From TrEMBL:
Record's protein name: Transposase IS116/IS110/IS902 C-terminal domain-containing protein
Record lineage: Bacteria, Pseudomonadati, Pseudomonadota, Gammaproteobacteria, Methylococcales
Originating species: Methylomonas denitrificans
Annotated GO MF terms: DNA binding; transposase activity
Highest taxon, organism lineage: Bacteria
Pfam families the record matches: Transposase_20
Annotated TM spans: none
NCBIfam families, per the entry: transpos_IS110 (NF033542)
Domain Transposase IS116/IS110/IS902 C-terminal positions: 84-160
BP GO annotations: DNA transposition
Length: 211
């Protein structure tokens, strides 16, 4: 996916140098590049069209390869009981479920869910004195890859929550109003990491938010 992003940015950059601008995003390049290549009235030379056509073919090959790898990850996820159960958690897809199931195992390495969330750097640092407790940003310690996967999945859930009315979405909507999008995404990632640990260590199914 990183290779595809780099290719798309390169295509957009080369087109911009020739006076043709495209909006950001791989879908925009997929949609517009064939039309640009077919347009005989634009400023592209014959050699430029040939090179851009080669890059478009590269893009299609990368799309096919990504679909193949996604299919393999999905099959791998379905082969494991724990990773299949993890898919019930909002914001957890096949890739995250598979890696988390492998990493957590039975959850024996941690005494409680907060300890596991802390190992991923998702627990806020504290600066407290007397009766006053001040929560700072997350520590960002531990496994940055797993933390990134959890936060990206949480972002997708928070992004769509405004169009839904289930209890979790309503809870997230209220939090967004008070704390802002980014803090809520991290809070949900923290919550999901604790939920996954509890599901693994206690052998239970996902329990959706009910209120």
């Amino acid at each position: 996916m990183a290779e595809r992003t780099g290719l798309v940015n390169q295509i957009r950059g080369f087109l911009s140098e020739r006076g043709i601008t495209l909006p950001q995003g791989v879908n925009q390049v997929r949609r517009h590049l064939p039309l640009i290549l077919e347009d005989a009235e634009n400023t592209l030379s014959a050699l430029s069209r040939e090179l851009f056509a080669e890059q478009y073919e590269q893009l299609k090959l990368l799309d096919d390869d990504i679909k193949l790898q996604d299919s393999r990850i999905h099959r791998l996820c379905q082969q494991n009981t724990l990773s299949r159960r993890f898919l019930d958690v909002p914001g957890i897809g096949p890739l995250t479920a598979t890696i988390m199931a492998s990493e957590i195992g039975e959850g024996k390495g941690y005494a409680k869910s907060r300890d596991y969330a802390a190992s991923l750097g998702l627990v806020p640092r504290q600066h407290s004195s007397g009766d006053k407790q001040v929560l700072l940003g997350i520590s960002k310690r531990g496994n940055s890859y797993l933390r990134t996967l959890l936060i990206h999945g949480a972002r997708a859930v928070v992004k769509c929550c405004s169009r839904k009315s289930d209890p979790l979405s309503r809870w997230l909507q209220a939090l967004v109003e008070r704390r802002g999008f980014n803090k809520v995404a991290v809070a949900l990632a923290n919550k999901n990491s604790r939920t996954l640990w509890a599901m693994a260590s206690q052998g239970r199914a996902y329990e959706a938010v009910t209120a």
